[in-house]
TrEMBL record:
Record-annotated Phosphotyrosine protein phosphatase I domain positions: 1-152
Keywords for this protein: Cytoplasm, Hydrolase, Protein phosphatase
Recorded GO CC terms: cytoplasm
Upper taxonomic lineage: Eukaryota, Metazoa, Ecdysozoa, Arthropoda, Hexapoda
Cytoplasm recorded as keyword: yes
Protein family according to the UniProt entry: Belongs to the low molecular weight phosphotyrosine protein phosphatase family.
Family matches, as Pfam families: LMWPc (PF01451)
GO molecular function terms noted in the UniProt entry: protein tyrosine phosphatase activity
Source organism (scientific name): Drosophila hydei
Name of the molecule in the record: Low molecular weight phosphotyrosine protein phosphatase 1
Gene designation: LOC111594469
Predominant place of localization: cytoplasm
Protein location: Cytoplasm
Positions of the catalytic residues: 7, 13, 125
Length: 157
């Protein structure tokens, strides 16, 4: 299983999701599962995750070593699932995928769709918020979504 998390600039939500998912892979001994994250814009390429995202991960015993990058065409063929965080992410991912020949086999989905609560389907971008409250909200949505995804797709022991 190969999973890619995507947000606008690969600096907050997607690196947090990648860190959470890496933790779940280790915790559940899913040795053949892989994960990464990417952005739709190149604003932060080569940088680490945003400071508040790293701080929040650290509060939960996690960390991100991720260096930001932009999604590539190859990602659509390599990953089984590509998760966007909001409507604009999903729309842009679908527009890219529609142009690919041959069609890419990946599934493009909202990460928040695994919460089965319409009000939590969108994981809002916390970047422009003041303080940490929006980062906490995004983290909780990401963590629960990732946990539910793993529960649904992990092989039975």
């Amino acid at each position: 299983m190969k999973v890619l998390f995507v947000c606008l600039a690969n600096t907050c939500r997607s690196p947090m999701a990648e860190a959470v998912f890496k933790h779940l892979i280790l915790k559940n001994h899913l040795t053949n599962w892989k994960t990464d994250s990417a952005g739709l814009r190149d604003w932060n390429v080569g940088l680490r995750a945003q400071g508040r995202a790293q701080e929040l991960l650290q509060q939960h015993g996690l960390k991100s070593e991720h260096i930001t990058r932009v999604i590539t065409v190859d990602d659509f063929y390599y990953f089984d699932f590509i998760f966007g965080m909001d409507e604009s992410n999903i729309t842009e991912l679908q527009l890219i995928a529609e142009k690919l020949e041959p069609p890419a086999p990946c599934q493009i989905q909202y990460l928040g769709s695994y919460l089965n609560r319409e009000e939590d389907k969108i994981i809002k971008d916390p970047y422009f918020s003041q303080g940490m409250a929006s980062f906490h909200t995004a983290y909780l949505q990401i963590r629960e979504s990732c946990e539910r995804f793993v529960e649904q797709y992990r092989p039975e022991a």
